[in-house]
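tool_log.txt
---
The assistant was asked to compare two proteins side by side. It first ran the structure predictor on the initial sequence, then on the second. Raw inputs and outputs are pasted verbatim so the downstream comparison step can read them without reformatting.
(1)
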Amino acid sequence: MNSSPLTNLLFASGLPTEGYDFRVVSSLELQQMRDEIVAISDASTSDGPNLTFVELEAEKTIWLITREGHFAHPSMLKRSLLKHGTTRIVQVSGVTAGSPEVMRVWMGQFREQDAHISRGFS
């Protein structure tokens, strides 16, 4: 996986997070979204065992796209840096063509990880 400044900011900085919502789409819609994301001109992609990691520096966004073998496949999780006034926030959202219950578990894992990291910065 990538360890760029954007990755560190969105995953390990302790910034406040919000969202953790997701929507359910068809497999075709999810594939089209995936294709559009990886086709963005400044997209930097790297592959882990069951995930494709897509960093969009200009959008201050990172997508985690599941692949075969990932428990939440087929799904995508998005982390974006937003500003509310002078406060920076990481917005977390997702899309799945799989089980909503499984997607809730995956989103919950990120919520727990973010809370743990945030406590480390308190």
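(2)
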Amino acid sequence: MKKPKALDSHKPVTEGKRSVVRRRKPKCIYSQAEIREIFRRFSVQRPEPKGELEHVNAFTLLVAVVLSAQATDAGVNKATRALFQAADTPEKMRDLGEAQVGEYIRTIGLWRNKAKNVIALSEALIRDHGGEVPDDRDALTALPGVGRKTANVVLNMAFGHHTMAVDTHIFRIGNRIGLAPGKTPDEVERELVRVIPDEYMLHAHHWLILHGRYVCKARKPDCPLCVIADICKSAEKTSDFPAPLVPIAPLQTAALDASQ
């Protein structure tokens, strides 16, 4: 008996009276050796990358990330410096109240809704977690105003998990250079987690964000500043010559952020 032929993933498949075209999801276009070299260079350029949101503990990190939605890190930092001096625990934040929190963060977009979420998540942490930020994605995403991206940032920065928080920078890079093509942040996240070598996963989130913020920018990539220009396979790139591979001090990136 002959075995049936395997279906071509690009040919229509009849389901009843409908023809459905099954297409393969786009995958990373780099070899494992190329990916390893990309992140090796990022690790030389920024040996200890740090998030640019200012915080003093896991709780203030969580609040800062919640506030950063549709806002710049620099703008959030300006608002939270005074806020976190007044309240750096869920109990202190709850006691401030929504109106007072709103006064601290009114320079941030959507501040009214964010103030409400900050108080609600503070109350939830006190009620359900003894005032501690949980080391668990499901518990984090159950908090008001906390989505998967925010949870992944907290898990990575506060607890050292190898998570990938896909923001606009990472989503753009994943698709632009073909490292992790995807139509949604979740698709890009899954592909990045699949292809990035484990020894680079702890800092990969920050390397990609910083690369997108300062080099592979939204309007036009600044390819002469790119340390992976010779490896990059983007159709948008303007240079095949990598920038000098030298360490960048955190203060240099902070100064660049403040100037933008």
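---
observation on (2): DSSP finds twelve helices and two strands in the chain. Residues 251-260 have pLDDT under 50 and may be disordered.
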